[in-house]
Amino acid sequence: MKQKPILLRHAAQLVTLQGTSAQPVTGTAMSTLHIIEDGAVWIEDGSIQMVDRDEVVTAFYRDRMQEAHVIDASGKVVTPGLIDPHTHLVFAGSRENEFEMRLAGKTYMEIMNAGGGIHNTTRATQAASEEDLYEEAYQRLNRFLQYGVTTLEAKSGYGLTLEHEMKQLHVAKRLQDTHPIDIVSTFMGAHAVPAEYKHDPDRFVDILVNEMIPEVAKSGLAQFNDVFCEHGVFTPEQSERILRAGMEHGLLPKIHADEIEPYQGAELAARLGAVSADHLLRASDEGIRQMAEKGVVAVLLPGTAFFLKAEAANGRKMIDAGVAVALSTDRNPGSSPSESMPFIMNLGCLTMGMTPAEVLVAATINAAHAIKQAHRVGSLEKGKVADLVVFDAPNYSYMQYNYGVNLVDTVIKAGKIVVQ
Ligand code: NIG
Ligand code: FE
After folding, report:
1. Is 335 in the pocket of ligand 1 (CB under 6 A)?
2. Cα–Cα–Cα angle for 336, 284, 313, rounded to 5 degrees
3. Closest CA to 213 of 203, 204, 225
4. What is the mean pLDDT of residues 63-78?
5. Model confidence over 25-68: pLDDT tens digits?
6. 256 labelled as ligand-binding?
7. Chain segment 334-390, per-residue pLDDT in tens
8. What is the mean pLDDT of residues 314-326?
């Protein structure tokens, strides 16, 4: 049965971000939002048909107003659906025991090097059935939706063998087919060096390059290839080999760069023309300059810095240097167990020197660019997928000021009301 059109009316602020689909938003453009006051949107067949002032939209659709489902957004802010461009969505178990160890003084890397951390979750994920992984991740997606996320990227990387990496990627595909949130998949077999290769990590890199990457690419289950380039995990040389192998097989490069120690990760991202470099807490000034020059999107994860009690990435400096900045939860069981993009946006303002306008751009259209989805989502424009969030806030600045609270009122995904 054909669905009723939706007419969203009288938004106090309709943040459209129009005209941003072709290129990531950089520099001062990140703080100049296109806003329509008393705005309206006509939604039909899953996509946005018209975005304008209420009087214009209602005049145009005058003869069809009766058939529409009307949402009154008076006194509220309406934005594009939030986009989370970096999650480790599919995994089993949780790590609150390690959280307690960290509170008592152990570091994240100490725990990982002692066989915990990513290895801990890998053991649990390898042991889990596809069904259990699906059920757990489905609940996580429901929480993401409650916080206004309508598209997200999901990485594998807790399998670390072809069989178990494929299991994670299959789960992501099933979620994409059954959950309202759209999922873009990334292969991250290079998330950690398994214990059995600890003394010969290059052997594991050989397996990634010669066996896993070609098979994953052939399956069509991933669009991107990611690597944890970090002292004690994969070196910049190994990371480059892994990312180049992916590129040869059509997987676009992403990189976990300069998270814990400065390691030339931003420079590597620029050299490879990576779609994004993520984390960047310890990125060098030169690396930042090169990322701006090459148009690599910086995906910043202030929730991870917060949770690891580390100094956040310098978002302000990156924006001022001309880097396109996006924001993400980094949802994972070890360094960022949260599905709240609004809280991440709060942290963007409070710990990274970003403005309320900048964090909104970073969590919508720039996040879409970071996962190559800006042609479909990330802004409110005719022809785009009708993904919108109504926030119970009188203006977009209030969303950052009233921090740590879920202000989501209504979520529309592909033209359907999914949260109300
Ligand atoms: O992005 N840094 C590496 N990977 C994840 C953490 C994964 C985990 O601890 O399970 C991250 O922070
Ligand atoms: Fe991550």
Report:
1. yes
2. 30
3. 225
4. 98
5. 999 999 999 999 999 999 999 999 999 999 999 999 999 999 99
6. yes
7. 999 999 999 999 999 999 999 999 999 999 999 999 999 999 999 999 999 999 999
8. 98
Residue 252: which H helix or E strand, with range?
strand 252-257
Q: What is the DSSP string of 301-334?
A: -HHHHHHTT-PPP-HHHHHHTT--EEE----BTT
pTM here is 0.98
Of 419, 391, 410, nearest in space to 77 by CA: 391
What residue has token string 């999107």?
297
Cα separation, 251 vs 249, whole angstroms: 6
**163 burial class (0-12, 13-18, 19+ CB within 10 angstroms)?**
exposed
Number of Cβ within 10 Å of residue 45's Cβ equals: 11
Q: How far is CA 380 from CA 50, 194, 204, 210, 357, in A?
A: 9, 44, 44, 42, 16
Q: Is 120 annotated as a binding residue?
A: no
35 CA → ligand 2 middle, Å = 32
Instruction: State whether the beta carbon of 334 lies less than 6 angstroms from ligand 1.
Output: yes
What number is the ipTM of this complex? 0.97
pLDDT for position 283: 98
What local confidence, expressed as pLDDT, does residue 2 receive?
A: 82
